[in-house]
Write a structure and sequence with these properties.
Layout: E1 3-4, H1 8-12, E2 22-27, H2 42-45, E3 56-58, E4 67-69, E5 72-79, E6 82-87, H3 101-112, H4 117-126, E7 130-137, E8 140-145, H5 152-156, H6 166-170, H7 181-187, E9 197-203, E10 207-212, E11 225-230, H8 234-243, E12 248-252, H9 257-261, E13 266-272, E14 275-281, H10 291-299, H11 303-311, H12 341-351, E15 358-362, H13 370-383, E16 388-392, E17 405-411, H14 421-425, H15 430-433, H16 441-452, H17 456-472, E18 476-480, E19 483-489, E20 492-494, E21 512-514
Helix pairs in contact: 10-12, 16-17
Length: about 525
């Protein structure tokens, strides 16, 4: 189904006196909906930054937390539980409406006091400390929390609290004076934000067209139009680039780069992405209830060999669940995950492993090199005596009791251990909620110290305790930070910025340039 934004303002965005500048991106996947509040996926998260804004901005040229004014021009902690924000005046949504405090309060409270089930999930896993947003006047709001919050700016910079228009959204279905589930479902197919580009066309799962929003409050968008089309097969994306159907393609594996670099009209670039490809294990599956079995499965995986074979040594293999983007909370000295096949054999023998088949679920194409990694891991398991089998399918199996092991990705949703490991393995988080992970009072106590301490050293110490528990009773093994490459036609200058969450397609001013700009 093709969904078009047909408001007068959206149509007006198609006309501009500026020099025509447009690109087409061939992406491995395109989301089936566009709503920054409900989205959590690697696929979806790449599509919001062009069209939406947060209250507090960030310098994405740096991995450091350099906060900047965005839809809020200033913010002040008025008491330990209340942040007051002054809103930028003269901001207009893509449909022509002026942004006011009412829109901000609506946008934040749809997450903080969520009633729409997809919002409730996102609220629980990262925003549970936030109580409400309150209007003070047309350009001032206050945000209130339940407990003193050590991550104020970080959590007001999240994709999930990007600002959307209240009146437009509530009028999409049913009673225009009431926010209903149908409104949010409809919004996800016809999104409106305040960013430099409007979503002027959206074909769910297939195509997104961004068109310059001439009423943008900041620096003008450098492109008149940017189109993202889904091309799932790598070979087809490369062909599209060579023939000129695409100007940029994403998710290129290292073994495909020579096909591109041999063409004088094309260039490639790459970087280790701010996420982990992980192997998750269902601690509640009867075959894996004994933590010694899961420790053996983890210890049997030679991640350095996977890196060399699949990523040509360019990926990053972590010793613990940490990455440099976490700043002061980065702890590369922790040793949580190791390769030790002899210890794996000993643990299997001690646990009385009887040769039960252990399945490894994977999608064939969703993750770059995902299937190849799964096949290699099965071979590594065999070397320590584990009977494994790859199970290929498109359905998500992470919430099924029969799931044993599968690949997944664990992104840095925001630059803190809470924003990567914590979002997934917090007490009551998605992993526990889907039934493949368990916490207890002791885990919750350590988690609480990690999450809410205002002292960095105390947070680091608590996180180290969490990692020691994960080491002894593992639900996850971070395999590596994949080295993802992209390719462009010469004359296009673009790269993902280091301060973004993974895969963000950022086409704002200063982020992309064309040869005839």
């Amino acid at each position: 189904m093709k969904v078009l934004l047909t408001t007068t303002a959206a149509i007006a965005c198609l006309a501009t006196g500026a020099l025509a500048q447009s690109i087409t991106v061939g992406a491995a996947n395109v989301s089936s909906y566009l709503d920054p509040g409900r989205d959590h996926s690697n696929v979806g998260s790449q599509f919001y930054y062009n069209a939406f804004d947060t209250l507090i901005g960030k310098n994405h040229d740096s991995i450091d937390a350099e906060w900047q004014p965005a839809l809020a021009t200033e913010w002040t902690l008025v008491d330990p539980l209340t942040m007051e924000l002054k809103l930028r005046e003269g901001v207009t949504f893509h449909n022509g409406e002026e942004m006011t405090a009412d829109d901000v309060v609506f946008s934040l409270n749809r997450m903080y006091q969520a009633t729409f089930p997809p919002y409730q999930v996102r609220s629980k896993d990262r925003l549970s400390n936030f109580a409400e947003a309150v209007k003070i006047d047309d350009h001032t709001v206050q945000v209130k929390v339940e407990r003193e919050e050590p991550l104020w700016e970080t959590l007001l910079n999240l994709q999930q609290v990007m600002i959307i228009p209240e009146d437009y959204t509530k009028a999409l279905s049913g009673d225009p004076d009431v926010a209903e589930d149908g409104d949010f479902e409809a919004f996800s197919l016809a999104p409106v934000g305040t960013g430099p580009y409007a979503v002027s066309e959206f074909v769910p799962g297939e195509k997104i067209v961004y068109t310059r929003h001439d009423g943008f409050w900041g620096d003008a968008a450098p492109l008149e139009q940017a189109t993202v089309i889904r091309i799932p097969e790598t070979a087809s994306r490369i062909t599209a680039l060579k023939t000129g159907e695409a100007d940029i393609i994403t998710n290129v594996a290292p073994d495909q780069l020579d096909l591109i670099n041999g063409d004088p009209n094309l260039v490639t670039q790459g970087a280790a992405t701010a996420l982990f490809h992980v192997m998750i294990m269902n601690v509640n599956n009867p075959a894996l209830e004994d933590p010694r079995i899961r420790r053996a499965l983890s210890l049997a995986v030679d991640r350095d060999t996977l890196n060399e074979a699949l990523w040509y040594g360019k990926a990053i293999v972590p010793s613990s669940h940490t990455m440099a983007e976490m700043g002061a909370l980065h702890q590369p000295d922790l040793v949580t995950f190791e390769y030790d096949p002899e210890e794996a054999r000993r643990l299997l023998d001690e646990a009385g492993y009887d040769g039960t088949e252990i399945t490894f679920d994977t999608d064939a194409v969703y993750y770059t090199n995902g299937l190849l990694a799964a096949q290699a891991i099965i071979e590594m398991w065999a070397e320590v005596g584990v009977n494994g089998r790859v199970n290929t399918g498109q359905a998500w199996t992470g919430g099924k009791p029969e799931m044993m092991v599968r690949n997944w990705s664990n992104p840095m949703y925001f630059a803190d251990p809470f924003g990567s490991f914590g979002v997934m393995w917090a007490p009551g988080g998605p992993s526990e909620g889907e039934g493949r992970f368990n916490t207890d009072a002791a885990y919750a106590e350590v988690w609480d110290r990690f999450r809410f301490s205002k002292d960095v050293e105390a947070r680091k110490a608590a996180y180290a305790e969490l990692m020691e528990r994960i080491k002894l009773d593992p639900p996850v093994l971070p395999l590596y930070r994949p080295y993802e490459s992209w390719a462009m036609r010469k004359g296009v200058s673009w790269a993902p910025k280091p301060g973004h969450i993974p895969y963000v397609l950022d086409f704002r001013a200063g982020s992309i340039a064309l040869a005839d700009s």
